[in-house]
Amino acid sequence: MRHGLYRGIAMSVAGSDSGGGAGIQADIKTFAALKVFGTTAITAVTVQNSMGVTGVHPIPPDVIEAQILAVGTDFNVDAIKTGMLGSRDAVRAVASGLRKLGERALVVDPVMVAQSGDPLIEDSAVDALLEELIPMASLVTPNIPEAERLSGISINNVSDMERAAEEIAKAGCGAVLVKGGHLQDGSRTVTDVILIDGAIIHFTDSRIDTESNHGTGCTLSSAIAAEMASGRDIREAVTFARRYLRACLINGIKCGHGAGCLAHAVKMDWIDELYA
Questions:
Q1: Edge-to-edge strands, sheet with 9-17
Q2: When you count CB atoms within 10 A of the terminal residue's CB, does the N or C end of the chain come out lower?
Q3: This prediction's pTM
Q4: Domains in the chain: how many in total?
Q5: What domain range includes position 72?
């Protein structure tokens, strides 16, 4: 829905990344680049930079829910994405807040581990995701390690990705996008698998060789939410969001001594056409 200059309003429910490459910061940058007004509910404050995460400080669950309700009962939020939630209580607080808001387009990115390898979720929270939040989702966007944990299936090829998507969908979500970037099969291409309306669709592109890839999952899920907030259906939103992500990767930047970050400020042709 159009709101003045903006194509829609979206909310990110996620953790803060002090390095600016992932989490809430990546989501807000993505929303802005895609001309969607961004709002937030912060679930944790992390102490991190390009080298890794040295501290995670959770926001109290009642404060998480209060943020969701404060924004969602005032703003006409068109789409919501969730990212790092961390604990069972946080997942429950988010699910409670979203139920009170009523049905909205919801993208669940089941963030479990930082790119540095640091854990970002408790084991008990994974069950809570499957039981309380994923059934509410329009789309769930796990990478391969996350899909393995949610489905219980070891993923070694694209067929395994399909099986994992089908297993995750049994939780009751609308669609599942299993991202193939972590698949180490020696291929020069990357295939993402989406299960939607009972059908499997493959998105295959050439692999982009870059060390500037911190925050790819956050960026993709927030771009999907942004495109859904603008009125696109799930398949269209995924298609356009993947184009945006690839442009961010191609133009990535090295800010610190570790992994580089995406170039969230890239301009996309469909945005330029709308605002020419």
A1: 52-58, 37-49, 9-17, 79-82, 105-108, 139-140, 175-178, 189-196, 199-206
A2: C
A3: 0.96
A4: 1
A5: 9-269
